[in-house]
Amino acid sequence: MNRTTRNIVRESLKEPFRRRSSSRLDFNQLRLKHPRQSADAKFFNKIGKNLPQFWESEATVPYFEGASPQAEAALRRTFDYSIADCLAHPFRTLESIRQQQFERLRQLVAIAFHEIPVYAEKYRHAGFAPEDLRSWEDFERLPVITKDELIAAYPDGCVSRRWPTQDLFCTRSSGSSGKTLLIRVDLDAILTDTVQGVRQYWLQSGMKYNRDHVAALIYTLPWWFEAVGDDFPTVFISGLIAPDAVATILDDLKPQVISCYPTNLKGLMPYWDCFDRRNLNVVVVHSETSTERRQWSAELGVPVLDEYSSEEATRIALELPCGHYHVCEDTVYLEALDPRTGKSAGAGASGLAVVTNLLNQAMPFIRYVQGDYVTRASAPESCLLGWSQLASIDGRRNDSFVNRDGREIPAGTILDVTYRWMFDVGIHLREFELVQKTPDTVTATFMVGTGPTDLRKIEESLHHLTRLLEGCLGHRIKLHSDVVTKFPDRSGKRRPIRRVFPSEGDVRILH
Hints:
Helices cover 34% and strands 21% of the residues. The protein is built from 15 helices and 20 strands. The strands form four sheets. Strands 1-5-4-6-7-8-9-10-14-13-12-11 form a twelve-stranded mixed β-sheet, with helices on both faces. The longest helix is centred in the N-terminal third of the chain and has 22 residues, at 94-115.
């Protein structure tokens, strides 16, 4: 790293986010311009800051309460108190970071042992007590925990009773493996996660991200906080909206940051020239494996950088302008294990990603099997950042759906449909599978969880799932459904979003 770059970083850390634009985007005018993509006024007032939200249709807008005024005030205090240390953390030495991580791990392990039955049982069975944790070698002897174990333990066996249920934020795993896990998160973790989100865009934009910059979040549901006070506004755009309509919204938003699935970005590419992107500093893609980022970046004229994350762990690693994947060391502790031995795979070798979430105390994830494979850098390149580096990340892959006209609907969008359906109607599924048999026919298979879900509730809400799918495809479909007690065993990872007929794109690739 040359001296000029070091000086730029040093000055940025002294007084970050000091610049403001002379003209901020008029969100009221924007909201009036797109009434059909927005919820009604009552919904907007319930959310809080009157920022626009863009949904696929008025008929499918879910009831979604934003953060309370008390939580908004807590976020402002947390940001003001912690942002300086948060921005400086990536530039600390890895040795000092590891010392701080170990103390946090000791706290989390003690909480899990005394408050979380599923961990207490595992640790006692292994002959372990919190006072035994004195070194990293001790930590590596702790048993790992899997999604299946947490699904079986939810809620009483894996959520701390220290917090009343109504005080916890509820989310669920994205279901990219076809298995869904309900997750409870405490407010302190959400506040820190939100502040770290500001840092993420600051880092990935090359330290250009500022208080009045707009981030466009093309996703399943809005984040709990739309902004930090009046700063860092985030505008939600439903991932179920057709790409041409999204391009129209982006043209009016003129965001500095876009965050979306890679498959959503791929769908936007034909419409990229349809919106003004002079303000755009970075596009962040997440949740799916993407190999076209360099090509997209060259075509778009802005960096397209990856975010490796999950609902269970939150941010795990970020692809940064320096050219490296850096592990978010104050968010997670990441291990890469040899699945045969359970020991470290070693630098340069692909290993099973096992993560410990350093934020969430209400529902701890300690040595949690993430399900992906990652490779630690065998010889980390010289970099100003002290965060450790990854050489590669291997994610999961699903199929896109195809409509009658041959247009591809991204796998991430179809995952969003399932996620939205479960959220909207209050259904929890243990596993699911959506298979497109023809452009007009989809088969949905569900495995219910151990909670209060009943077959009648699923049957009565299938029309809503059908409507969401039809909104994505742009035409009517027939949805066939089935509920099973167990999915048949298959070799390899099961892909919950599949298409069993070729598209024109598939034929071109084959030939």
